């Protein structure tokens, strides 16, 4: 969690839901090298009043193709390629924004080899 977001959540009296769950939600389709529009999402036990910095949302349940990525983020492209190939070969189409859930990382693991993330791509069967 970004330090400013953590301070604002603390000021609002937010409590993170357990097990802790946060993800980056990409708001634009396709790959971009810069100026990437994202939301950082954190599961909380209750909604509070929105502020200029934090907005509270409910996300609907989705059907998603998912893959766990173990190791450095610099190799995410390999996991994305595998997942996108699975979607194409199994008759699905992407129907929403991609999420990256960072389970273990620099904040709790000593080496990049121990980092664990989950890539989630919302899908639906092609009709």
Radius of gyration: 16 Å
Mean pLDDT: 89
Amino-to-carboxy terminus distance: 39 Å
How many helices in DSSP terms? Answer: 2
Task: Identify the notable features of this structure and list them briefly.
single chain; 28% strand; 2 helices; 127 residues; alpha+beta; 6-stranded antiparallel sheet; globular
Explain this structure.
It is a single chain. The relative contact order is 0.20. The chain is globular and about 45 Å long. The chain is of the alpha+beta class and 127 residues long. It has helices spanning 3-12, 76-89; strands spanning 22-26, 38-42, 64-70, 92-94, 99-104, 116-125. The chain starts with a helix and ends with a strand. Strands 1, 2, 3, 4, 5 and 6 form a six-stranded antiparallel beta sheet that branches. The longest helix has 14 residues, at 76-89. It has two helices and six strands, in the order αβββαβββ.
Q: What's this entry about, in short?
A:
This protein is α+β, with helices and mostly antiparallel strands.
Question: Secondary structure elements and their pairing?
Answer:
Layout: H1 3-12, E1 22-26, E2 38-42, E3 64-70, H2 76-89, E4 92-94, E5 99-104, E6 116-125
Antiparallel strand pairs: 1-2, 1-5, 3-6, 4-6, 5-6
């Amino acid at each position: 969690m970004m330090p400013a977001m953590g301070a604002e959540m603390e000021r609002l009296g937010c409590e993170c839901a357990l097990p802790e769950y946060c993800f980056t939600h990409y708001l634009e389709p396709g790959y971009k090298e810069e100026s990437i529009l994202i939301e950082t999402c954190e599961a909380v036990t209750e909604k509070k009043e929105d502020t200029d910095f934090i907005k509270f949302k409910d996300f609907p349940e989705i059907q998603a193709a998912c893959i766990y990525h173990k190791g450095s983020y610099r190799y995410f492209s390999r996991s994305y390629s595998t997942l996108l190939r699975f979607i194409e070969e199994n008759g699905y189409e992407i129907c929403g924004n991609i999420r990256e859930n960072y389970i273990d990382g620099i904040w709790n693991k000593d080496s990049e080899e121990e980092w664990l993330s989950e890539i989630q791509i919302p899908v639906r069967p092609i009709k």
